[in-house]
């Protein structure tokens, strides 16, 4: 730790210097400053102290201004200050400008030692924090390519729902994108057959070679290519190209791969969209193109426009959100359902004119999946779904607004019904859990074991007992054990050590402490007055 002494009295500086050198040899005094009329900033810049030990009166009536100037210019520098009792408020307020602590004049050696020990500890802790931060930053720099891959995979999967988040990612990973986004997927044909006689390294090198060729072919384009799986390279292309030009580019890429690696690939191409939010849509379209290889042939370039020219709905529709909607409905979470419902129908509204009867079919599919999921879980209210989602009403739905309004009301009523069921189930679980504990309280306690036996989770069990007993499950088990111990203490002469083991305690001292906590007296005291 580097220390600068600031005081207009040279004798104070000499005394501090002598004491610190003797008592704190690890503290390096880099200099002193005693000229009141001069600007201290240049001296601080040249001497580079970590800590300034200063007489607050040295700075005169402008001491706060000077502290702030130094703190603003060198924010890592800290202060120890000293003054009279009249300066107390000023010294305390100095904490906002980096003052660690203060002392009163005349400064006692013990007070100086205390403050310097505190400052030394502060800087040691700060240095350790900096060191740990540096270790983490170095590790991050080594793994940054993996974080870029996570970002790109999340982008392809549609897990990012804000355009600013995506563009920030582009900027951070130096991905040179602007407007116009389409996805190419280059997939090795008959991959399992191709690699069946290759070593693991040779398998990995095959897709790495494909990636290198793709990157060479796209050097003149703003693009980002990355390995998405062992047999697939994905490309985000930043260009407003016609379908014909994309096919020509894909054809050139597949022939380059064949020529240089003797590997045949099929290329699926999604549509071009103006927003990076729609990259996931283009990715789904590119992936769907491979389903038509039976007709278009392997080692082909298949844009989605060739095989599904009029489908603007399937790939925009957020199927993952629909699955969450189903799960949320079955657990009775209407508020979450409402948010997901909004996302689903917003996506539908962006897909353009919908075919006749499609809204009714979408709603019917959601209701069917809710009913199926309830049946798969063997829940007792599978037969109640039709009551809350009448088929006749669904078939009359025409517009997006009709569909949204129907599902919103139906889900609200259904979730309320499900909530009542779960409340009853919670009551049942409470009763069953208490019965189980009464029979097994003397066994080694494990909330996980109890939860598994009852087909629930530790969190749910604790929640049930907090709601109905106002205590955690652990406390309930301890109380049952204590009650059992009370009966034995009252009605038998069995030794405490034996009773402790019989009711589930391996340690008699722990048994006694728990007993006193719940009863208010020791087992011996309880036995004395209950039997006497």
Number of DSSP-assigned strands: 10
Structural class: alpha/beta
Strand order of the largest sheet: 2-1-3-4-5
Instruction: Provide the β-strand percentage band.
Output: 5-15%
Cα Rg: 37 Å
User: Overall pLDDT, averaged?
Assistant: 90
The major sheet is characterized as: 5 strands, parallel
Describe the structure.
The longest helix is centred in the first third of the chain and has 49 residues, at 109-157. Helix 8 crosses helix 9 (243-261), helix 13 crosses helix 15 and helix 14 runs antiparallel to helix 18 (400-440). It is flat and about 95 Å long. Helix 3 links the parallel strand 3 and strand 4 (78-83). The chain has 532 residues and is α/β, with parallel strands linked by helices. The two termini are 70 Å apart. The protein has 24 helices and 10 strands. The model has no long low-confidence stretch (mean pLDDT 90). It has a 5-stranded parallel β-sheet, sandwiched between helices. A 5-stranded mixed β-sheet has the order 7-8-6-9-10, with helices on both faces. The chain has helices spanning 10-23, 41-47, 63-73, 88-93, 109-157, 163-172, 191-195, 200-217, 243-261, 279-289, 293-296, 304-307, 319-331, 334-349, 358-376, 385-388, 391-395, 400-440, 447-454, 458-468, 473-491, 496-502, 508-519, 523-531; strands spanning 2-6, 28-33, 51-55, 78-83, 99-104, 181-188, 222-229, 232-238, 265-269, 301-303.
